[in-house]
């Protein structure tokens, strides 16, 4: 398969997944904002979310105040924010359009019609009037896109590169969603949860579609370390870090070439470590520290895949995060766009 | 009585025999159903993403080409004549191309002035003496034809470079069959869906000698090109890779594509990029769309290009007037299809005639395309004519003039209901070991009342084209 085609497929999947996860991350906050809390606490919550997404300075440069309204505008609509839902769905669609011949008609039509319907949503500003419903719609479209990929695509290399993009992006995003929580409560140590924390954890679990699962698995109260265990170490949990790495490893094996040995080794090592890890060890290290290391490894894997298979990918680094947030900055990877000039022909 | 030929009615009211079944069906349809079907068609085209980009707009901005649901119907006898005329014309054009890049017999015989060919900007000296597979240059031709009267067809242009539109021909048929399956039960419409298979066969035959199982690719300028949908569509339908210049490289006069498993040799390139942009080492150095060294690979006979480099010299408007002479010279036959009488403004007497009759004539740029930069005298204001006169006088060599033809019209849905609109026809002619085509082509329609410009960039639409079998 053409390297450029693989690149488009990989990034189509990453941006689709990123749109979904931006929606999930926003959804936790929107749900939680219904809880009684001070304006200051709410603002702090949004600030943390922007920090984990490495977007705080970009936001501050643009908006005078920080309330749900501004954050939603920035994270849903803003075309200048590369992680906004609109930017992600646009990038997913542009990538799909570039390789539409490689996709089944059904996959292309879902990606294209999502983008067309998004224009209507943006125009009528449903994301302001009813953010919950809009974010639900984004997730729903992402489910359709994934479902039609699994249900119609021939499982060759094209399929493997799509899946690689999905799992890598999802690993990155689950780690960030977890990190928001633990930075928000400003602590890596677990004490018996305050009421607020309990509700926050409930919202977090729902946002990764894990609330019912949690009840089924633990049949017990919601505690932070069990939430972490479920979302990091449980191989049966589709959005857990270990499940994502499992997907990365198996798809990398399928597309193996003469250059990819080192990248494969890195992925396997990360996967093996997660498989054998105990949640206690991770908590001893400090969850935030662990997640920061994990995000760095995911970025390295992304670079490796780019180097071995795709166009030479020089990740374009977002601007430095302000000093008060953690060193996890600058790991949001974006596609190196190869612009093609318009010409008669 | 209208002063143009109506495809559906004779004498303004009698339905022509080949339209009877359609007209009966149309009369039975409730008006709101037709409206509903039109909306359905539009929605479908949008969802499938059958769009084109318009130059001058923001890069990547896409529009739908309006699709009209009343088909353009041609009966079997007229198609047989058109087909024979097309085979004859395209055969002669390929002979001409081979000749001007080899022995130049037609120039030696004085049939066409030597300097008019050799000084033409589209003549590529780099191709002189180069052997191309099967001596075919224009593998794909999109010949624009208009009808002026009963059995009276004129060729407007021979598009021999990178003609586009065939994907609309195929998608229009698919759409009509989806919207109105019952129509195809009532009419024996010749199928066109096998075009991609014919095209692939044709391209494979353009491979360098000795290659048993050639690798074919479609080369596109990229997704912001106006015809990108078509490039992607054809590559997918043929099951071949859609590549951009950056995906290919030339090593030791051989073309390779970069794949996830390393380099793979490419034998035939269906290129949808103009000559000028094809190889920055040979043509425009600033082009980022092409493949450095591609011309060398062609000269070494290591890769087949469809169409070959240098076909523009045969479809240039300054060469167009000589096509009937080519047919007689190479084939010894009388031309079946008419040429439109053409005044070459490079000649003093013909320039004078043109200047004196601007309000009656159509004046076109010799190298123009897409309906840009032309004057339609009868439809222009005095001010427009005077402005054009100044441009013409500044550069007479750059223009030709033709009488304004009374283009035929076909009933078309417009805001006020159904009304006749002018149309043309672009059949796609494939040349390889034989010359072949699917029955029909792309019918374009000028949607504005009285307009003669059918180009999609100028507000034109398209129709399904039916060749009825006997």
Give a short overview.
The complex is a heterodimer of chains A (345) and B (470). Chain A has 345 residues and is mainly α.
Question: Can you give a write-up of this model?
Answer:
- The complex is a heterodimer of chains A (345) and B (470).
- With 345 residues, chain A is an all-alpha fold.
- Chain A has one domain.
- In chain A, 70% of the residues lie in helices and 0% in strands.
- In chain A, helix 1 runs parallel beside helix 9 and helix 1 runs antiparallel to helix 10.
- The C terminus of chain A is likely disordered.
- Chain B has two domains: 390 residues, no CATH class; 63 residues, Dna Ligase, domain 1 (2-Layer Sandwich).
- Chains A and B meet through helix 1, helix 5 and helix 6 of A and helix 2, helix 9, strand 9 and strand 11 of B.
Q: Note the gap between the termini of chain A.
A: 25 Å
- For the record, give the distance between the C-alpha atoms at the N and C termini of chain B, rounded to a whole number: 30 Å
Runs of chain A in which pLDDT lies below 50 for 5 or more consecutive residues are 187-193, 312-330, 337-345
- Beta strands of chain A, count: 0
* Number of distinct helices of chain A: 16
Reading the helices and strands of chain A in chain order gives HHHHHHHHHHHHHHHH
**Residues in β-strands, percent of chain B:** 15-25%
Give the overall pLDDT of chain A as a whole number: 85
Number of strands of chain B: 25
Which class do the helix and strand fractions of chain B yield?
alpha+beta
* Alpha plus pi helix count of chain B: 15
Structural domain count of chain A: 1
User: Looking across the biggest beta sheet of chain B, what order are the strands in?
Assistant: 5-25-24-21-20
Average of per-residue pLDDT values of chain B: 91
Q: Portion of residues in helices of chain B? A: 25-40%
Task: Provide the number of structural domains of chain B.
Answer: 2
Choose one word for the global shape of chain A.
globular
């Amino acid at each position: 398969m053409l390297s450029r085609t693989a690149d488009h497929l990989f990034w189509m999947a990453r941006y689709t997944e990123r749109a979904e996860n931006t929606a999930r991350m926003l959804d936790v906050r929107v749900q939680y904002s219904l809880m009684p809390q001070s304006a200051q606490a709410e603002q702090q919550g949004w600030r943390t979310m922007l920090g984990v997404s490495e977007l705080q300075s970009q936001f501050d440069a643009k908006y005078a105040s920080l309330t749900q309204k501004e954050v939603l505008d920035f994270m849903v609509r803003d075309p200048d924010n590369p992680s906004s839902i609109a930017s992600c769905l646009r990038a997913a669609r542009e990538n799909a359009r570039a390789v539409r011949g490689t996709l089944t008609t059904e996959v292309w039509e879902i990606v294209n019609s999502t983008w067309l319907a998004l224009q209507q949503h943006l125009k009528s500003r449903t994301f302001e009037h009813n953010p919950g419903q809009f974010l639900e719609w984004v997730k729903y479209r992402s489910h359709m896109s994934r479902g039609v990929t699994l249900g119609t695509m021939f499982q060759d290399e094209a399929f493997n590169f799509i899946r690689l993009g999905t799992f890598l992006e999802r690993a990155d995003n689950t780690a960030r969603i977890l990190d928001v929580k633990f930075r928000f409560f400003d602590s890596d140590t677990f004490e018996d949860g305050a009421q607020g924390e309990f509700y926050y954890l409930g919202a977090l679990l729902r946002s990764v579609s894990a609330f019912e699962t949690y009840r089924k698995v633990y049949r017990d109260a919601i505690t932070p370390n069990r939430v972490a265990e479920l979302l990091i170490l449980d191989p049966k949990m589709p959005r857990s870090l270990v499940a994502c790495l499992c997907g990365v490893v198996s798809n990398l094996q399928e597309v193996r070439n003469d250059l990819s040995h080192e990248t494969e080794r890195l992925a396997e090592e990360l996967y093996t470590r997660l498989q054998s890890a105990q949640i206690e060890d991770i908590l001893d290290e400090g969850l935030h520290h662990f997640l920061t290391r994990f995000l760095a490894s995911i970025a390295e894997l992304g670079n490796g895949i780019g180097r071995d298979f795709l166009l030479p990918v020089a990740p374009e680094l977002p601007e430095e995060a302000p000093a008060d947030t953690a060193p996890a900055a600058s790991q949001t990877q974006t596609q190196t766009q190869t612009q093609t000039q318009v010409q008669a022909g | 009585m209208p002063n143009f030929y109506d495809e559906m009615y004779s004498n303004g009211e009698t339905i022509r025999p080949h339209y009877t079944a359609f007209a009966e069906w149309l009369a039975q349809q409730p008006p709101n159903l037709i409206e509903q079907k039109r909306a359905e068609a539009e929605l479908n085209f949008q969802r499938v993403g059958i769009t084109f980009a318009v130059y001058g707009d923001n890069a990547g901005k896409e529009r739908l080409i309006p699709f009209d649901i009343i088909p353009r119907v041609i009966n079997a006898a007229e198609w047989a004549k058109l087909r024979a005329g097309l085979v004859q014309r395209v055969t002669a054009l390929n002979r001409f191309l081979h000749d001007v890049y080899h022995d130049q017999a037609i120039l030696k015989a004085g049939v066409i002035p030597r300097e008019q060919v050799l000084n033409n900007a589209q003549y590529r000296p780099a191709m002189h003496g180069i052997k191309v597979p099967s001596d075919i240059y224009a593998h794909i031709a999109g010949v624009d034809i208009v009808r002026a009267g009963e059995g009276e067809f004129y060729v407007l242009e021979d598009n021999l470079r990178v003609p586009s539109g065939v994907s609309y021909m195929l998608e229009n048929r698919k759409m009509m069959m989806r919207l109105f399956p019952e129509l195809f039960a009532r009419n024996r419409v010749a199928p066109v869906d096998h075009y991609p298979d014919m095209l692939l066969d044709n391209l494979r035959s353009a491979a360098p000698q000795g290659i048993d199982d050639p690798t074919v690719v479609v080369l596109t300028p990229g997704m912001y090109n106006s015809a990108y949908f078509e490039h992607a569509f054809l590559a997918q339908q043929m099951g071949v890779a859609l590549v951009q210049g950056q995906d290919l490289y030339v090593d030791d006069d051989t073309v390779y594509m970069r794949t996830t498993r390393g380099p793979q040799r490419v034998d035939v390139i269906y290129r949808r990029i103009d000559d000028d942009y094809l190889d920055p080492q040979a043509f425009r150095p600033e082009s980022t769309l092409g493949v450095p060294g591609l011309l060398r690979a062609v000269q070494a006979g290591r890769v087949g290009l469809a169409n070959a480099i240098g076909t523009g010299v045969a479809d240039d408007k300054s060469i167009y007037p000589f096509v009937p002479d080519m047919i007689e010279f190479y084939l010894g036959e009388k031309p079946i299809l008419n040429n439109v009488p053409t005044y070459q403004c490079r000649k003093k007497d013909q320039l004078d005639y043109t200047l004196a009759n601007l309000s009656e004539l159509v004046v076109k740029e010799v190298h123009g395309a897409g309906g840009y930069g032309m004057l339609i005298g009868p439809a222009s204001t005095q001010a427009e004519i005077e402005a054009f006169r100044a441009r013409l006088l500044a550069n007479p060599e750059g223009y030709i003039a033709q009488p304004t033809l009374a283009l035929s019209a076909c009933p078309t849905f417009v805001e006020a209901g159904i009304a006749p609109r002018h149309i043309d026809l672009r059949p796609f002619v494939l040349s390889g070991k034989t010359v072949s085509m699917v029955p029909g082509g792309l019918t374009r329609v000028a949607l504005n009342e009285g307009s003669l410009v059918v180009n999609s960039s100028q507000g034109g639409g398209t129709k399904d084209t039916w060749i009825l079998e006997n």
